[in-house]
């Protein structure tokens, strides 16, 4: 049995009447009547709730898996099978990772009525999330007593890299025309060597692709049509050292990279290329050879699900040896890492140059959005001026890192964490449209 706030407000009103009856004696009988009436209402409410158990059914409905960093729906289905009208307060026991202690849903449930309640949960770490019981606090129209009903609904759900983002970017990247902001179609520079067909010339076709032999046979201009080269190897290389543990908007840099790896791998496979995976820190982690079969995306997703950050420095020499042993043919390497200083880049640069000579290397690293916000604040004191000067120098160092990598023929992408997936997909489509892979 639980006593809601209405009970205490009513009891407080009766106590106030008794207090007022000291200076005003004529209020004493009224206070006694109110006390007896309140006791009778509480007794009646208790009989309505406890004479027999309220015929209420409740269950929770979840998706088989949750997507990391996306709103995931949680449905609670509740049915009032009795002839009474109830007011309900539903307290769902959420997984400990959400740290939600005040999750409560209040609703009114008419007799013989089903009801569906929806809430959204945004997980920020991968792993197993355990839901507990559903606690339903039932009140009648009087609302002076609550009765708790416990529905045992213990459930577990796995939080995987964002499947929702993967599907969203797939739809945007595979469209023939993209006019909105986001995935952009790159103008083709030349064409690839994958011959597709011979077709009639139409205005706007490249006259350098005219097939003169076919044109003479048909007495009409015919042109060769080409398509993107297929079966190119593309590897996502994810750094899982301590530099990737930095959080932005509740999500670590490594989890941003993992979400992007899943999304870009899906697009790579849709483009008929081969997708592979390599993770590293002070040791080599997951390794998946680039394949194009139907189960490759599931293998990549399972490998990413199990990866954990390591509180150590990354070993780029070990990365070079791992790439040399795993990858034979020239491939596109998308390296997700982070450099916080020019010194850190210069330490890794010799190894990156060797990788760049053997493969087409794209280094993807992150802009510190918190420091950029600092540069936009108003300067009031001398200390503020010094902070902004240091912050601007930090941002300038990041731009110089991009320039330095490009000087050695290494492609570089400097991006905000929240724009990582978009910019990485654009870079892949750009390289593919230019025929570099």
Work out the number of β strands: 20
CATH architecture identity of the largest domain: 3-Layer(aba) Sandwich
Distance between the termini: 70 Å
Largest sheet: 6 strands, mixed
Low-confidence segments, given as residue ranges, are 176-181, 185-190
CATH fold name of the largest domain: Rossmann fold
CATH class of the largest domain: Alpha Beta
Walk across the major sheet and give the strand order. 17-16-13-18-19-20
Overall residue-averaged pLDDT value: 88
CATH superfamily of the largest domain, by name, is: von Willebrand factor, type A domain
Radius of gyration: 32 Å
Given helix and strand content, the structural type is: alpha/beta
- What's the structural domain tally? 3
Query: Helical percent range?
Result: 25-40%
Number of helices: 11
């Amino acid at each position: 049995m639980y006593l809601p706030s209405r009970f205490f407000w009513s009891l407080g009103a009766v106590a106030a009447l008794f207090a007022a009856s000291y200076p005003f004696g004529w209020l004493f009988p009224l206070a006694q009547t109110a006390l007896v009436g309140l006791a009778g209402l509480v007794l009646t409410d208790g009989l309505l709730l406890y004479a027999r158990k309220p015929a209420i059914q409740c269950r929770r409905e979840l998706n088989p898996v949750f997507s990391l960093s996306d709103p995931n729906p949680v449905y609670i289905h509740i049915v009032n099978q009795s002839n009474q009208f109830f007011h309900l307060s539903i307290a769902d026991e959420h997984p400990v990772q959400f740290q939600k202690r005040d999750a409560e849903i209040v609703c009114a449930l008419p007799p013989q009525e089903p009801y569906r309640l929806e809430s959204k949960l945004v997980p920020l770490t991968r792993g197993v999330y355990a839901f507990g019981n559903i606690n339903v606090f039932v009140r009648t129209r009087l609302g002076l007593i609550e009765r708790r009903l416990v529905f045992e609904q213990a459930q577990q759900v796995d939080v995987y890299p964002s499947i929702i983002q993967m599907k969203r970017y797939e739809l945007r990247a595979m469209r023939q025309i993209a006019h909105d902001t986001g995935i952009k179609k790159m103008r083709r520079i030349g064409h690839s060597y994958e011959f597709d067909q011979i077709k009639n010339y139409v205005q706007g076709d490249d006259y350098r692709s005219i097939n003169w032999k076919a044109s003479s046979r048909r007495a009409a201009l015919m042109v060769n049509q080409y398509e993107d080269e297929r079966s190119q190897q593309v590897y996502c290389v994810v750094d899982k050292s301590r530099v990737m543990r930095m959080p932005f908007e509740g999500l670590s840099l490594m989890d941003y990279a993992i979400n992007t790896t899943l999304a870009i791998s899906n697009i790579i496979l849709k483009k008929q290329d081969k997708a592979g995976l390599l993770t590293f820190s002070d040791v080599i982690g997951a390794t998946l050879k680039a394949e194009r079969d139907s189960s490759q995306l599931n293998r990549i997703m399972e490998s990413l699900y199990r990866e954990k950050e390591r509180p150590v420095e990354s070993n780029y020499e070990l990365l070079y040896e791992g790439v040399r042993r795993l990858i034979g043919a020239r491939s596109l390497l998308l390296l997700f890492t982070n450099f916080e200083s020019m010194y850190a880049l210069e330490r890794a640069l010799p190894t990156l140059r060797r990788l760049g000579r053997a493969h087409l290397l794209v280094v993807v690293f992150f802009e510190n959005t918190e420091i950029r916000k600092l540069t936009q604040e108003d300067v009031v004191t001398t200390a503020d001026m010094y902070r902004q000067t240091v912050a601007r120098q930090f941002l300038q160092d990041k731009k110089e890192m991009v320039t330095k990598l490009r000087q050695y023929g290494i492609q570089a992408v400097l991006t905000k964490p929240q724009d990582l997936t978009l910019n990485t997909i654009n870079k892949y489509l750009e390289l593919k449209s230019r025929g570099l892979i």
